[in-house]
Amino acid sequence: MEKMHDILVRLETEAANGEMVFGTHAEMALRVRRALDDPDCSLDQLTRLVRAEPLLAARVVAMANSVVYNRSGRATTDIRHAVSSVGFKALSSLAMALIVRQMEEISKDHAHRTLSARLWEHTAQVASLAYVLARRVTHHDPDTAFFAGIVHEVGGFFLISRAASFPGLLDGPLQDWYRSGEVRLGRALLKALSVPQEVVDAIEVMWKGYLTLPPETLGDTLLLAVQLAPVDSPLNDLAGEGDSAMDHAQVDLALGEETLSGILEESAAEVAALTGALQS
Length: 280
Fold this sequence. Notes:
By secondary structure, the chain is mainly α.
């Protein structure tokens, strides 16, 4: 079997050269993201693009009807209104979510698809928690934190999607993955997907794994969300790794009057709504 290090070098080269295969849904989502990068892009243009991609349209409507964006409680099925309600940043996150999730469907291997499904469950939880933590704890833009959560495991999705081409790749310990592979492949993919530098910097903080107390930066927001997510990344299990248990009391002391447990309890409905919109 080819050594893990050599495989990771090959995958990194693929990503750097843009040799990533996406399904039709993801290609349409990429068109939406490119349109969002155009400062002259209009709401009508985006609406037409979203309408052309049913999976993305369904997620945008679900998000617009969630307790996060729909305080009135009046449900909408109008895509233009839904796009306007969630805003361009949230739309970019949903488009990226569709791109990342399409990697889950590339492999035909049942075990690999099971891994991807669990990794997506973890990702959805991290993104939703990051949104709430940015708004309530670190006071960063919640939509940017949400986006960071969606792409923070993009390297893991790509690794699983290509595993069928390298028999035995995911059978043994993945120490090489956590020593350097995750970072190197992740950087190449984030660049290929034109992820904003602010988000890349936050993911770099997550890879280093050092949480500042009190949490202040976007990187702290993401790392805290990863440590709080009820479902861990399945790649941690394969590597014999595990996220360290989050000490709520230690964070509570750093936050002052509010407690982390209290914030999470008050925001539980928002976290559930955002997670549901991503997993629908």
